[in-house]
Design brief:
heterodimer, A: 533 residues, alpha/beta, Dimethylsulfoxide Reductase, domain 2, Rossmann fold, 4 domains, 6-stranded mixed β-barrel, 5-stranded parallel sheet, 20 helices, globular, B: 303 residues, alpha+beta, N-terminal domain of TfIIb, 5-stranded mixed sheet, 3-stranded antiparallel sheet
Chain lengths: 533, 303
């Protein structure tokens, strides 16, 4: 089961918070309120981020690592914990597999090596290792700084290894928490919008699971996993995927290497886009199905980063011909020869409850009464699990032990060289969201439009003043953007967002080197060249 | 045959449902309020004790999700043996306390506080204050037409919210919400002394030049309408604001994955204001700029 192991309230009562590759202060502001309560209660906060962000300003120490050196840092922390004798042996012995292989794998990651590879002083790495390992309670929280890399899954595993080494998982106040970037990215995966899962994390290649769903649905389910988004684009390239139905996504602007993404979308035989707006992707479509806003114009549920399933409710009528996504899908199914009826959102949810054991106890009535419930929730009397994996502290452990998975440092694919000497990383700003489709429509006093953020040192070095326009070039494309000096950036590091793609198409620059397991592209590490125009 | 990967089937549930560690139950404290004996947990405030037996003690600066600052003095009660009246919102209970919440001394004090406020501040959008003023027989008019006021022009310096300090009773709630109780941005504080005291940004700069990040948590806690959504301000000016025609619907914010509950206030098919429930575990009533203001894309789709 994949989800944040802890509840937000636990952040307020933990002792050490390791915020890794996340600027939660701007990207998850209300989660950061919980972090700040933790800090005010005495927790030590360590922020690992190439940029000295608003989150880092609150930290006891900021570990300003070089982009893409996370595994070198994590393995060095792991090695230091082992060498200093701070391993939680009761936990590794009882609840994990593969400790010896991990110990061997991290042996070369000395503090000195890590300092060279990451740019973080050895003493700072040592401090964090000891603080994390010695704490009664400690949690690691991360965002796309970990996952938007060509080795995203390895990055996550490097952090998981640290929690297994120290026993900081499966207990109150200790855990591993990916902060989700969209309001229902957790729920989408939970409901089976993953290439290899049916609703409730049940594996599509598991015969028993498939048989259960086939009986309920009266259809045969393909026994092999499908493609993730990146795999779909590769299949378009090979000519295997010729028809695409896009629901509430704007890949023409959100995909890395935008020239390629648009070319492939244009080459499809059929493109259907179901969205609130005529996005850049919708402009390429053969058919556009205008839809209602899921959170304010229709009924249903979404699931948050703490696994809390909560109700969304209809407060407004959708405009014009816009219709509820559920009604569109059912009509489409009817045209394709499958009568799904005209179920309400609650009726669909009842089906989820009947097929997904971890959602079984979540009736709409209980969701209402309890203000949401965290999965797993196995029956009508179950309160939902406050934190996951507590079974790992039972002796003996029932079910599988948690495996260490050794991983190796592997720097970003888009290498820096004399021609492309600056590392561009991407992220969000407080008042905007993704490709700006939603946020462009409210008037934010904080908005300045897109800029290439640069350290003042680099501004001087490349002869561009604050506000001057530059041509930004990568190995894939180029854009024009004004420069903004930003003292949170170190020399050699630049920052842009994807919020204003109509003015500055940042994704013309980014690389679609993707993680082989998750399919996530390396948005965080592009090599660029800048020149004044 | 190789072993199944760990994720191939769901792990077994733990033997016991995971819970927060047990906290020792606080001892009960017994006291007497208005002749009735009351037992509340140690550490509770007199306000909580009063509310537990249904006594409607007025409050203005107090709010459940903020630390009490004891500035408005409208919640004062009389405790036997103490020389001065005490603020119920922050005074914790002690065994054997004998408390009067409706004595002539208490009523007189509350009436004076409410009269001072209502004579110097525009309370036209402060329903709680007006209700209390009526209950305690406050007559703000008795200070005459020349009574000093805090009247001043409304500050409209950004697209999202307005600051009308002619309506400000200096309760500090906005300062607390901007500070350590929620947002920790510290864009505003109380400047000046005595009658000159006022809520101010640093050097009284306009909001766009201040540290403000437009979370609007100050609006969310303001009891008098001094801080107001620009949409509400403009609708009130146009005479179209009508709470009787507004429906409130709880839903979840469409942006990041934190899952904040938004209460959408809808009038005539349009969102006119967004709040969050004060007792919500995720938000404690607090939001960010996108959650509170970023909804123009629904309904008419920002046209």
């Amino acid at each position: 089961m994949g989800g944040g192991t802890s509840s937000y309230g636990e952040v307020e009562e933990t002792d050490v918070i390791l915020l890794w590759g996340s600027n939660a202060r701007e990207t998850h502001p209300i989660f950061f309120h919980h972090v700040l309560r933790g800090v005010h209660n005495g927790a030590r906060l360590y922020v690992v981020d190439p940029r000295r962000t608003g989150s880092a300003e609150w930290a006891d120490a900021w570990l300003g690592l070089d982009v893409g050196s996370d595994i070198a840092l994590a393995n060095a922390i792991g090695r230091e914990i082992i060498v200093a004798g701070l391993t939680c042996e009761a936990f590794t012995r009882n609840a994990t597999d593969g400790f010896e292989a991990y110990r061997t794998a991290v042996e070369p990651y000395t503090l000195e090596y890590a300092e060279r590879e990451t740019g973080v002083p050895a003493e700072a790495i040592r401090t964090v290792a000891h603080a994390y390992a010695r704490a009664d309670r400690a949690m690691i929280c991360w965002t796309l700084g970990i996952t938007e890399h060509h080795n995203a899954v390895d990055n996550v595993l490097a952090l998981v290894n640290l929690s297994l080494l120290t026993g900081h998982v499966g207990r109150y106040g200790s855990g591993l928490n990916p902060l989700r970037g969209q309001n229902n990215v957790q729920g989408g995966g939970d409901m089976g919008a993953l290439p290899d899962r049916l609703p409730g994390f049940q594996h599509v290649e598991n015969d028993e699971v498939r048989a259960k769903f086939e009986t309920a649905w009266g259809v045969t389910i393909p026994p092999k996993r499908g493609w993730h988004l990146t795999g779909m684009f590769e299949a378009m390239e090979r000519g295997e995927l010729t028809a695409l139905h896009v629901v509430g996504e704007n890949p023409a602007q959100s995909e890395a290497d935008q020239h390629r993404a648009v070319r492939l979308l244009e080459g499809l035989e059929t493109l259907v886009v179901q969205d609130l707006f005529l996005t850049k992707t919708a402009e390429l479509a053969d058919v556009v199905l205008p839809s209602a806003a899921g959170w304010a114009e229709s009924e249903g549920t979404v699931t948050s980063s703490e696994r809390r399933v909560q109700r969304v409710r209809r407060a407004l009528d959708p405009p014009g011909e816009a219709r509820d996504d559920l009604a569109i899908i059912c009509d489409l199914a009817r045209r394709l020869g499958h009568d799904l009826g005209s179920p309400s959102a609650e009726e669909v949810w009842e089906e989820v409850r009947s097929l997904s054991p971890v959602h079984a106890g979540m009736s709409y009535r209980r969701l209402e009464e309890l203000g949401g419930i965290r999965w797993p929730c196995y029956d009508d009397d179950h309160p939902g699990e406050l934190f996951l994996h507590s079974r790992l502290w039972e002796e003996p452990v029932r079910g599988p032990r948690a495996p260490f998975v050794p991983v190796e440092h592997d720097p970003p694919v888009d290498r820096l060289d004399d021609e492309f000497p600056i590392r561009l990383t991407t992220g969000r700003r407080l008042d905007s969201f993704n490709t700006g489709v939603q946020t462009a429509r409210y008037r934010s006093p904080l908005r300045r439009g897109e800029t290439l953020d640069l350290s003042p040192e680099d501004g001087e070095r490349y002869g561009v003043a604050d506000g001057e326009r530059v041509r930004v070039r990568s190995r894939r494309g180029e854009v024009l953007a004004p420069v903004r000096y930003d003292r949170s950036l170190r020399p050699g590091l630049a920052f842009m967002t994807l919020h204003f793609g109509d003015q500055v198409a940042t994704n013309l620059l980014t690389i679609d080197a993707t993680d082989p397991k998750s399919g996530t592209a390396e948005f965080k590490a592009t090599a660029i060249h800048i020149e004044k125009v | 045959m190789s072993a199944e990967p760990i994720w191939f089937r769901l792990p077994p549930p733990p033997t016991e449902v995971p819970r927060a560690p047990e906290r020792p139950a606080p001892r009960a404290v017994e006291l007497t309020i208005d002749g009735a004996s009351v037992a509340v947990p140690e550490g509770a405030t007199l306000l909580e004790a009063c509310r537990s037996i249904g006594i409607d003690t007025p409050t203005l600066c107090y709010l459940e999700n903020l630390t009490p600052v004891n500035v408005c003095r409208v919640c004062v009660v009389e405790v036997e043996g103490l020389r001065t009246l005490v603020p119920a919102c922050s005074r914790t209970v002690e065994p054997g306390m004998v408390v009067q919440t409706d004595s002539e001394r208490v009523r007189h004090s509350r009436r004076m506080v409410l009269e001072f406020l209502a004579s110097s501040v525009d309370v036209s959008t402060a329903p709680d204050l007006r209700r209390y003023a009526e209950r305690y027989g406050a007559e703000p008019g008795r200070y005459g037409p020349t009574a000093a006021t805090v009247a001043q022009p409304v500050k409209v310096d950004n697209e999202l919210y307005v600051r009308d300090y002619a309506k400000c009773i200096l309760c500090y709630r906005c300062v607390e919400a901007c500070g350590t109780d929620a947002q920790n941005t510290f864009a505003i504080a109380v400047a000046g002394r005595g009658f000159e005291a006022r809520i101010s940004t640093e050097f009284a700069v306009p909001l766009p030049d201040s540290a403000c990040v437009y979370c609007g948590n100050c609006i969310g806690v303001c009891p008098t309408g001094a801080l107001m959504f620009r949409s509400e301000h403009e609708m009130r000016a146009a005479g179209t604001w009508d709470e009787a025609r507004q429906a409130r619907t709880d839903t979840i914010c469409p942006y990041c994955g934190v899952g904040c509950t938004l209460t959408l206030h809808v009038q005539d098919g349009e969102i006119v204001k967004v709040t969050s429930p004060l007792d919500h575990e995720v938000t404690a009533g607090h939001l960010c700029i996108k959650g509170r203001f970023g909804w123009a894309f629904v309904g008419k789709r920002g046209e």
